[in-house]
Protein backbone atom coordinates (compact mmCIF):
# COMPACT_ATOMS: atom_id res chain seq x y z
CA UNK A 1 0.00 0.00 0.00
CA UNK A 2 1.45 3.40 -0.91
CA UNK A 3 2.07 5.89 1.83
CA UNK A 4 -0.43 8.75 1.57
CA UNK A 5 0.51 12.41 1.82
CA UNK A 6 3.97 12.01 0.38
CA UNK A 7 4.50 14.36 -2.59
CA UNK A 8 5.91 11.62 -4.78
CA UNK A 9 5.80 7.90 -5.28
CA UNK A 10 8.79 5.96 -6.56
CA UNK A 11 9.20 2.42 -7.78
CA UNK A 12 12.14 0.56 -9.32
CA UNK A 13 11.91 -1.62 -12.39
CA UNK A 14 13.62 -4.97 -12.85
CA UNK A 15 16.73 -3.19 -14.17
CA UNK A 16 17.07 -1.17 -11.00
CA UNK A 17 16.00 2.09 -12.63
CA UNK A 18 13.95 4.43 -10.50
CA UNK A 19 10.68 5.89 -11.80
CA UNK A 20 8.98 8.67 -9.87
CA UNK A 21 5.50 10.13 -10.10
CA UNK A 22 5.21 13.56 -8.53
CA UNK A 23 1.94 14.55 -6.91
CA UNK A 24 1.05 18.24 -6.99
CA UNK A 25 -1.73 20.10 -5.27
CA UNK A 26 -4.24 21.64 -7.68
CA UNK A 27 -7.14 23.03 -5.69
CA UNK A 28 -9.30 20.19 -4.49
CA UNK A 29 -7.57 17.84 -6.89
CA UNK A 30 -4.15 16.39 -7.17
CA UNK A 31 -2.21 16.35 -10.41
CA UNK A 32 0.12 13.44 -11.08
CA UNK A 33 3.19 13.75 -13.31
CA UNK A 34 5.58 10.99 -14.24
CA UNK A 35 9.22 12.02 -14.30
CA UNK A 36 10.10 9.26 -16.76
CA UNK A 37 7.61 9.72 -19.60
CA UNK A 38 5.80 12.96 -18.83
CA UNK A 39 2.43 11.26 -18.26
CA UNK A 40 -0.03 13.50 -16.47
CA UNK A 41 -3.30 12.79 -14.79
CA UNK A 42 -5.68 14.56 -12.44
CA UNK A 43 -7.04 12.65 -9.51
CA UNK A 44 -9.58 13.45 -6.87
CA UNK A 45 -8.01 13.94 -3.50
CA UNK A 46 -9.47 10.91 -1.83
CA UNK A 47 -7.49 8.82 0.59
CA UNK A 48 -4.90 6.77 -1.30
CA UNK A 49 -6.44 7.47 -4.74
CA UNK A 50 -3.69 9.65 -6.27
CA UNK A 51 -1.03 7.30 -4.90
CA UNK A 52 -2.82 4.24 -6.21
CA UNK A 53 -3.10 5.84 -9.66
CA UNK A 54 0.60 6.70 -9.56
CA UNK A 55 1.48 3.16 -8.56
CA UNK A 56 -0.71 1.73 -11.33
CA UNK A 57 0.98 3.94 -13.94
CA UNK A 58 4.46 2.91 -12.87
CA UNK A 59 3.43 -0.73 -12.98
CA UNK A 60 1.69 -0.60 -16.36
CA UNK A 61 3.92 1.83 -18.25
CA UNK A 62 7.33 1.02 -16.81
CA UNK A 63 6.93 -2.40 -15.19
CA UNK A 64 8.25 -0.70 -12.06
CA UNK A 65 6.89 -2.62 -9.12
CA UNK A 66 9.72 -2.65 -6.58
CA UNK A 67 9.10 -0.37 -3.65
CA UNK A 68 12.49 1.07 -2.58
CA UNK A 69 11.11 1.72 0.89
CA UNK A 70 9.94 -1.86 1.39
CA UNK A 71 11.82 -3.81 3.96
CA UNK A 72 13.39 -0.76 5.52
CA UNK A 73 12.68 0.00 9.12
ZN1 LIG B 1 5.58 7.19 -16.91
Describe the structure.
By secondary structure, this protein is an alpha+beta fold. Helices cover 19% and strands 34% of the residues. The chain has one helix at residues 49-62, and strands at residues 8-12, 18-26, 29-34, 40-44. Strand 1 and strand 2 form a beta hairpin. The longest helix has 14 residues, at 49-62. The radius of gyration is 12 Å and the shape is globular. The model has no long low-confidence stretch (mean pLDDT 90). Bound molecules: zinc ion. The site of zinc ion has 7 residues, from helix 1.
Task: Assign an overall shape.
Answer: globular
Distance between the termini: 16 Å
Number of helices: 1
Number of strands: 4
The unique ligands bound to this protein are: zinc ion
Please bin the fraction of helical residues. 10-25%
Strand content: 25-35%
Q: Which series of helices and strands comes N to C?
A: EEEEH
What is the alpha-carbon Rg in Å? 12 Å
Structural class: alpha+beta
Query: Can you list the strand order of the major beta sheet?
Result: 1-2-3-4
Main sheet, how many strands, which sense, barrel?
Answer: 4 strands, antiparallel
Overall pLDDT level: 90
Amino acid sequence: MPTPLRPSLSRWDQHGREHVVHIHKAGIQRTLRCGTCGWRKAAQFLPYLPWLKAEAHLMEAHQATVNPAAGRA
